[in-house]
């Protein structure tokens, strides 16, 4: 993993590194493994540096949104929209070298060669005494077809097939089957020593390699190699995606591009923007995201299609750029374009009237986006959006349409989006962040702004820009509601902390909001011995409805009451 050597640095410096060192040095063995997976050329170095600049730094580690496959651990926070802060975890064998494993070298020196030998063995005829009570669909297949099938299976899967199929039981596995265990995507693809050899006793090599797991020190080195190898794949694919791409659009002056168009020109227009956990330049970058490139685009007067480019960053998909086509098939682009990973967002025979956007954010950038049309409808989503917090940016008057678009980008993805607006009499604030979906405009939420801006709101909620949670009854039909389950705990100071709310209907569908903590994954600030589950039975089919919720506050929520009534011929409270 690359280290962060910028100040303040709280983790241990790599051996031999000077305290005044700057940058993101790689562990030598990790760098060799990455280059073994795929060659990293000189141009990729700048991309790696930009990617490191784009990730928040926590205890000397770069937070890419994962836990380094267990090499780092997470603080136990799992509220909707919340992301974990990395913490150091214990490494069993910090001196293990995942690149150079002596025992592996010895195995290949003794059992491998560079003489090609396919070692194809014909399968023996099926025994007449081998009886099965069920029909075996593989009995009629020739041996070469069966061998081709097993080439796509793992050894454990082949073992299961041998136990369940007579045809596979008598199948002799040739040397090429065992050699394929070391190909990319197979059990031992991280044993790259196999690439240097074409021949040898591959079954013996496989079994000898597997036997190395019995030695603790060698097992730790193999596990660490697997860990680094599994990260080399998404890193190399990310670098490949970043090659031959530039950030399209009119450049706007920033600290990273001082020679671009002066930012004062943008002030001639009024803008509404949405982002999340944005960290400005010069501020300690421990959470959220930041942008290096500001781009502005004048949209075509008659857009006929809108496309969205996406990029995969360590198993998360982000929006990287947008492309607008007019009626003459002329393209207008902003951000990083990836034609092979592009989604059609909207297409119409007539001009598309864009009023705004719904945008799905995690704390690292834009995950998904959809268009709000002038007629009140919206497009399909592009990118990832399910169970991800969302914000809306749109014009304030019904006749407002988007003519100018501005975006802020980090090394690879979109992190802030802005549209032009007619200046109203008041300065707009950032729209509310919602989870999992944005409610319809006809719903009112009295007191929401006061709650979000409450000075007693936990600092972590403010720093992470946690969303307001909203969910309709299952399928939006209160007539099917049967039960509301509230799980809560009481803190030692008698402060009520609601964990989650579950709404269940008669057709077994559910809507749920809140924490989902697995057993034993509680923060120490909670009194885990005082957990309560309150179930409210609701006779939805019989006409019972929830009329209101009453809450009691002393700076924080300490109690609530549900008021119900019956609708129909007789009203009962």
TrEMBL record:
Annotated Pfam families: DUF7600
Domain F-box: 135-181
Tree of life domain: Eukaryota
Protein name (Swiss-Prot/TrEMBL): F-box domain-containing protein
Organism, scientific name: Fusarium odoratissimum (strain NRRL 54006)
